[in-house]
Design a protein that fits this description.
The complex is a heterodimer.
Chain A (H helix, E strand, L loop, with lengths): L2 H12 L4 E6 L5 E5 L9 H10 L3 E5 L2 E8 L4 E5 L3 H12 L3 E5 L15 E3 L3 H4 L9 E5 L4 H12 L5 E4 L3 H13 L4 H4 L2 E2 L11 H17 L2 H12 L2
Parallel strand pairs in A: 5-6, 5-8, 6-7, 8-9, 9-10
Antiparallel strand pairs in A: 1-2, 1-4, 3-4
Chain B lengths: L4 H10 L4 E10 L9 E5 L4 E3 L7 H11 L6 E6 L16 E9 L4
Antiparallel strand pairs in B: 1-2, 1-5, 2-3, 4-5
The chains are: A alpha/beta, B alpha+beta.
Chain lengths: ~240, ~110
């Protein structure tokens, strides 16, 4: 490793591209393999595996140990509703290495000064979502309490591969939401993807505490296998 | 200041310090930080990041400082479970980890 390599690492991280550092375990020589160059590399199989599983691989190949250290772009958190909870949530999420994007058409809420470190899009969710790729490493949270804002965002999310969808609101509000969505043709199994009421039940009271409960739920969705997450939620509820 | 080890390591190099980066390259059992976790170390002992829950960082820094003025060197370290009765460095959590240290010089 040297200064030039560190500069290359940071440059590629800033570009939000996947790449992998490859080195022989006991040799001071590390190369950076970009995602687009993987196939040209003779260890492409291991590089691809490391990137796909987002996990460093130490592998013995022909009697020598090799290290494949992958770097992937951060997970994304889309927050609809630039409310008080969003201010706390954006800070915690950023600190947990998420890239945060905040959407709210209401100018008073979507003031950039309220979110100094994050991208704020002052637009209706249907327009804002056009410029966002809701992929498998994206979480969407709706916090506006306004069905005409939250519902559009939730429907977009349900039609995407995003790994987490959460909606603020009481059990009663959530039931009304589910009824509305069923009327609009969504099936009940699909609607189970929405976490509502949002957040792990830690009896959060303040906006800051609610933000922690939401972030904890997002992390549980990211880190648990899909099968165990249902079980986890049941255990939490029945505690 | 950012708490990213790579960003800090680069800043230190630019300011003329010698720097080492420790990377967790393998874990067994309940290791506290996953493989790929990094710790940047400056020649005066300042560190950013982590390779464990704080159990072995002290020893990793000591090992890094031994080679930090020999740029472009590599050192592999391995830590296992702590024996409560002995004064040794180890992991209280019952895991095993393997760590690689890379050194680099300021004008590299």
């Amino acid at each position: 490793m040297d200064k030039a390599l560190l500069e290359k690492i940071i440059e590629n991280k800033n570009k939000k591209k996947s790449f992998c550092l490859v080195s022989q375990a006991d040799v001071n020589e590390t190369i950076l393999v970009k995602n687009k160059d993987i196939d040209k590399h003779h260890f492409s199989e291991f590089i691809r595996k490391a990137i796909n599983e987002d996990k460093l691989i130490l592998e013995e190949i022909n009697g020598k140990e090799w290290i494949f250290n992958p770097f992937n772009p951060p997970a994304k958190l889309i927050i609809v509703g630039a409310v008080h909870v969003a201010q706390s949530l954006s800070i915690i999420a950023e600190n947990s290495d998420f890239e945060v994007i905040i959407i709210d058409p209401r100018e008073a809420f979507a003031a950039q000064e309220r979110f100094p470190n994050n991208k704020v899009i002052c637009a209706w969710p249907e327009d804002a979502f056009k410029e966002i790729n809701l992929d498998e490493r994206t979480a969407v949270v709706t916090l506006t309490h306004e069905p005409n804002l939250d519902d559009i965002a939730l429907k977009n999310s349900l039609n995407s591969k995003c790994f987490y969808i959460g909606a603020l609101g009481s059990k009663k509000t959530h039931k009304k939401r589910i009824d509305r969505f069923v009327k609009d043709g969504f099936n009940i199994e699909t609607l189970k993807r929405i976490n509502g009421p949002i957040g792990l039940p830690i009896n959060a009271q303040t906006p800051q505490e609610i933000a922690i409960s939401i972030m904890a739920e997002i992390i549980s969705s990211l880190r648990y296998q899909k099968e165990s997450i249902e079980e986890l939620r049941e255990n939490w509820k029945n505690r | 200041m950012s708490n990213d080890p790579i960003e800090n390591a680069l800043e230190w190099l630019k300011k003329g310090h010698n720097v080492a980066i420790a990377t967790v390259v393998k874990t067994w059992g309940s290791a506290p930080r996953k493989a790929g976790s990094q710790l940047a170390i400056r020649e005066d002992g300042l560190m950013v990041g982590s390779v464990s829950g704080g159990c072995v960082e002290g020893d990793v820094v000591e090992n890094a400082l031994e080679i930090i003025n020999t740029p472009s060197s590599v050192k592999l370290l391995q830590y296992g479970i702590t024996n409560d009765t002995a004064w040794e460095v180890g992991l209280a959590c019952g895991g095993d980890i393997k760590i690689r240290i890379d050194t680099m010089k300021s004008n590299g």
